[in-house]
Amino acid sequence: MVAELSKLRDQIDDVDRQMVELLAQRLALVEQVGVVKSQHGLPIYAPDREAAMLASRREEAERKGVPADLIEDVLRRTMRESYSSENDSGFKCLNPELRPIVIVGGNGQLGKLFNRLLTLSGYQVKVLGSQDWDRADEILHDAGMVIVSVPIHLTESVIAKLGNLPEDCLLADLTSVKSGPLQAMLEVHKGPVVGLHPMFGPDIPSLAKQVIVYCDGRNPESYQWLLEQFQIWGATLNRISAIEHDQGMTLIQALRHFTSFVYGVHLAEEDPKLEQLMSLSSPIYRLELAMVGRLFAQDAQLYGDIIMSAPQNIAMIKRFHQRFGEAIEMLDAQDKEAFKQAFGQVSGWFGDYAEHFLAESQGLLRQANDSTHRKA
């Protein structure tokens, strides 16, 4: 039995080595694709091409008796690496005549990410850091674009210092709050203005499938090239008004981060054995625990700024607190009928999205389970 098992394992190892060789060949081809895309200004992410390729490979897998979901999982992971590899080829520069781009706060993580992408696209990039304000006039005098990438609580005060920009200079910010910074930019600068919110962190390997929200400010024709440059990087654009953006972020960011913060505080106060919690966890709870823990591995100032950035955030959190209290009253009364009625109302609000999210989360949970290492 041992000899037979050893022989089969050797054969599996041989197949695995062939898979590694094939993946190496695929990545080499991707590098060539990246060069062609860079030369012709094509986006690194082509959703139609990706969807057609996945559908074709799923059909081929089913014909050979291979689970279609398996080949899709393998290909999606491979494509994620491919998008990152394509970055190394650089990107076509859509505005080669642009004067230098200055990133205010360019020594921060997000500023460094945009510095790298802009440099890969052939633009000249300068950084105006917190220690450089005595040379600000020198750094900014010939700027073709200025990007403000500083902490939320500093954004408007920093924008107020940018009153002497060239008239045709494009002024933009990367803040997760839009109404205040956008209005501040419009007041301090008479040229083109756009508000930007990258919906991702600075640790991403590629902008493929990432979202950049933009809020029109002034002279939109002057920054269409920039929006198109984002698309070449692989990003998806979402145009929205500053007011609507901030209303959405109240739920997407402020309330979500606050509930994670409170849950983390609660865990720390209850002080359970974290290793024991993890050993008992199903994939979904482990994933939830990971998302809470992720918050506390990052900058407290950033998340405090996001949560406390607007009165509407506090008002929303208070309404959530009120509904939480109403739900507790339901539990105290052991009112299962009221629970089921509320459950049904929420299910109806989600509609078809409920089944969609169920299927989507199952895929995420499979991935979370795959990455789990249990001690023997």
UniProtKB/TrEMBL annotation:
<comment type="pathway">
    <text>Metabolic intermediate biosynthesis; prephenate biosynthesis; prephenate from chorismate: step 1/1.</text>
</comment>
<keyword id="KW-0827">Tyrosine biosynthesis</keyword>
<dbReference type="InterPro" id="IPR036263">
    <property type="entry name" value="Chorismate_II_sf"/>
</dbReference>
<dbReference type="InterPro" id="IPR046825">
    <property type="entry name" value="PDH_C"/>
</dbReference>
<comment type="pathway">
    <text>Amino-acid biosynthesis; L-tyrosine biosynthesis; (4-hydroxyphenyl)pyruvate from prephenate (NAD(+) route): step 1/1.</text>
</comment>
<dbReference type="GO" id="GO:0004106">
    <property type="term" value="F:chorismate mutase activity"/>
</dbReference>
<keyword id="KW-0057">Aromatic amino acid biosynthesis</keyword>
<dbReference type="Pfam" id="PF02153">
    <property type="entry name" value="PDH_N"/>
</dbReference>
<dbReference type="InterPro" id="IPR003099">
    <property type="entry name" value="Prephen_DH"/>
</dbReference>
<dbReference type="InterPro" id="IPR008927">
    <property type="entry name" value="6-PGluconate_DH-like_C_sf"/>
</dbReference>
<dbReference type="GO" id="GO:0008977">
    <property type="term" value="F:prephenate dehydrogenase (NAD+) activity"/>
</dbReference>
<keyword id="KW-0560">Oxidoreductase</keyword>
<feature type="domain" description="Chorismate mutase">
    <location>
        <begin position="1"/>
        <end position="90"/>
    </location>
</feature>
<dbReference type="InterPro" id="IPR002701">
    <property type="entry name" value="CM_II_prokaryot"/>
</dbReference>
<dbReference type="Pfam" id="PF20463">
    <property type="entry name" value="PDH_C"/>
</dbReference>
<dbReference type="InterPro" id="IPR036291">
    <property type="entry name" value="NAD(P)-bd_dom_sf"/>
</dbReference>
<dbReference type="InterPro" id="IPR036979">
    <property type="entry name" value="CM_dom_sf"/>
</dbReference>
<dbReference type="InterPro" id="IPR046826">
    <property type="entry name" value="PDH_N"/>
</dbReference>
<keyword id="KW-0520">NAD</keyword>
<protein>
    <recommendedName>
        <fullName>T-protein</fullName>
    </recommendedName>
</protein>
<keyword id="KW-0028">Amino-acid biosynthesis</keyword>
<dbReference type="Pfam" id="PF01817">
    <property type="entry name" value="CM_2"/>
</dbReference>
<keyword id="KW-0413">Isomerase</keyword>
<dbReference type="InterPro" id="IPR050812">
    <property type="entry name" value="Preph/Arog_dehydrog"/>
</dbReference>
<dbReference type="InterPro" id="IPR011277">
    <property type="entry name" value="CM_T"/>
</dbReference>
<dbReference type="InterPro" id="IPR008244">
    <property type="entry name" value="Chor_mut/prephenate_DH_T"/>
</dbReference>
<feature type="domain" description="Prephenate/arogenate dehydrogenase">
    <location>
        <begin position="99"/>
        <end position="361"/>
    </location>
</feature>
<keyword id="KW-0963">Cytoplasm</keyword>
